[in-house]
Write a structure and sequence with these properties.
The protein is of the alpha+beta class. The protein contains 8 helices and 6 strands; from the N terminus they run ααβαββαβαααββα. β3, α4 and β4 form a beta-alpha-beta unit.
């Protein structure tokens, strides 16, 4: 677990980030999906797929946003993935756009190709145990310099999240389940906004 001094640093940094969130989000870079195919030898695009028990999955992840949000996005991510870092900025901007209507649920999917991703996920879980998941989560994508402080304790929530993702056929990040639909391709910020707005117009269906 991280030391008390480290958590004081995280809390201070989180306060600064909240104060500057508007500037950061305004400068968010529109990101493009980096993997169009998965498990198909690069021959066929992934298709959207409905996940019947998505609400149960949402209960397992870390929720950011109102409990009664009309639209929920489940997000499988890796803290060392640069595409996830960009996606996280876009999701933050969407929450600013729809503060009362959108919730984001983060599930861990640390990739084997990223050697520090498990350590960063452990740091996020330590934050969750102290009711500070979102504050810690917001700090982990820009930098991995705190990863060593997470130690090597095994936290079951990380592997549980990844196992769920693997059962759904997920092999890369970021991947989204938007209101029960596993998106075949990860849209850019404008595409996400359009999808969320469309669901809101249909009453969250």
């Amino acid at each position: 677990m991280a030391s008390a001094h480290l958590w004081e640093r995280l809390a201070t940094a989180a306060t600064i980030m909240v104060a500057t969130a508007g500037v950061c989000l305004a400068g968010s870079v529109v990101w493009q999906h980096h993997v169009a195919t998965e498990g198909t030898g690069g021959q066929a695009p992934r298709e959207d797929r409905r996940i019947p028990d998505w609400r149960e999955l949402a209960e397992l992840g870390h929720r950011m946003g109102p409990d009664n949000a009309e639209v929920t996005v489940l997000y499988f991510g890796d803290y060392e993935c640069p595409y996830c870092a960009k996606a996280d900025l876009d999701l933050g901007a969407l929450r600013e756009e729809f503060p009362e209507n959108l919730a984001v649920v983060f599930l861990h999917f640390p990739l084997a190709t990223h050697p520090r991703s498990h350590a960063l996920a452990r740091m996020a879980e330590c934050g969750a145990h102290q009711d500070s998941f979102e504050a810690v989560h917001s700090l982990l994508f820009p930098t991995d310099e705190l990863a060593d402080a997470a130690g090597d304790e095994e936290l079951p929530g990380i592997e549980e999240d990844k196992s769920i993702g693997e059962e759904l056929g997920i092999r890369s990040t970021p991947r989204f389940i938007l209101q029960g639909v596993l998106l075949g391709a990860s849209p850019d910020s404008a595409g996400l906004s359009e999808l969320v707005r469309g669901h809101l117009e249909k009453g969250g269906l």
